[in-house]
Amino acid sequence: MENNGETPLLVSKNVATNAHFTGDVEDIAPINGIKDFFYQFGVESKKLWYLAGPAIFTSVCQYSLGAITQTFAGHVGTLDLAAFSIENSVIAGFSLGIMVGMGSALETLCGQAFGAGQVDMLGIYMQRSWVILLVTGLIMSFLYIFATPILLLIGQTEAISHAAGKMALWMIPQLFAYAINYPQAKFLQAQSKIMVMASIAGVALVLHVFFSWLFMLKLGWGLWGGALVLNFSWWFMVVAQMIYILSGTCGRAWTGFSWAAFSNLWGFVKLSLASAVMLCLETWYFMALILFAGYLKNAEIAVDALSVCTNIVGWAVMIAIGFNAAISVRVSNELGAAHPRAAKFSIVVVVAFSILVGAILSLLLIIFRHQYPALFANSLEVQDAVYALTPLLALCLVINNIQPALSGVAIGAGWQAAIAYINIACYYIFGVPLGLTLGFAANWGVKGIWIGMLTGTVVQTIILIWICCRTNWDKEASMAEKRIQQWSGKKHVEGEQ
What stretches pass through the bilayer (predicted)? Predict the structure, then answer.
């Protein structure tokens, strides 16, 4: 294999004998000319969309569970909407960031191990992740129990804090569903078993819409009804995925529960924490938008308007998260199989599609800017505030469609720790202070906060693109091989054929 004089690849015999995992025995040939580029673009597009299509559908369905509950809460009352928005964005959002972040360590290890043909390790990795995330869930449950005093402490209004705190107590079962669901998802995703996840999520969404309407509006149960249905929907997905995994459909990837899941836990914890820091910094960044809006004058209207906008951004970002999942699988599988050129070219393809999809969504939002606010709130004040934020929302859709895809590259390559430092600098040292300065000191309100924080996202996205362009992908393939050997517990032999 050609390596252009860079770090020699360490290719295990698993790569040659398990080529069907990534679809190619050898790496893609060097691209020469436009015709070659478009041919390879078409080939890679098919591989990407085979993963991204079902992943996008799954992400949209799962996000829509909370978003639909929030939409129904907007038709119950402004306090109900504000309470659910704070609970969903601050309490559940904080927890979700940790759970998804720690689960992304599994994404790196499972994807690279599957690409190298070491399928038997996937079930062990998933069980280790379950242990770590369930313990994390027990710790995080105190955040739910003491949500009311925490929200009061950080300056939220008394009415919103008490209502959101009560909602948080009702949502503790969802926290433990997160702990089991995300390792399951990464386990299935690494094997490209995305269609089953999409099917389960689709059924859950249909049931969720009907029962949310029934309990929240028809029977008048309000937020209690929403919490009941939301918990049920998440646990439905967990149980359905578990039945699929235990049924034997995953072959050597699942051979049963094993005590090996409790070995090397501390090493797995450290890798999971690095992953959690990276993704939590991203998740909490936009969660902070809702929090800061709570300090503005007329806080209830500001929180409601911004929660509608972040709700829409969240739906759009679910498409990007589908790309995130797909590119993570593509990069990790190709690096695990020692295909550095294929890994690099897959990034070009996913960025191109991310920009295109973001632009289409922004255009649709602008076209229907007079109609969409009424779908999310009955209050004319809230609708007017959302309409005023539409230009900024449209720009946000484009930027936030590219950034998650690039984060998927980082997860697939195992760069979580390095990206965490970049996120701290771009988001919290630059973006947050700029947003607070524009929002409060310059008196621009919600627009100022959002503009400043969006600027931080733009800077982070530019840096990620620069890193992808400058990376030595031959060296990354070598590092993936070493990582697989380390976590499988097998000794690495250089030059093994």
Answer: 48-69, 89-109, 130-154, 160-182, 194-215, 221-246, 267-292, 312-333, 345-368, 388-406, 418-442, 448-469
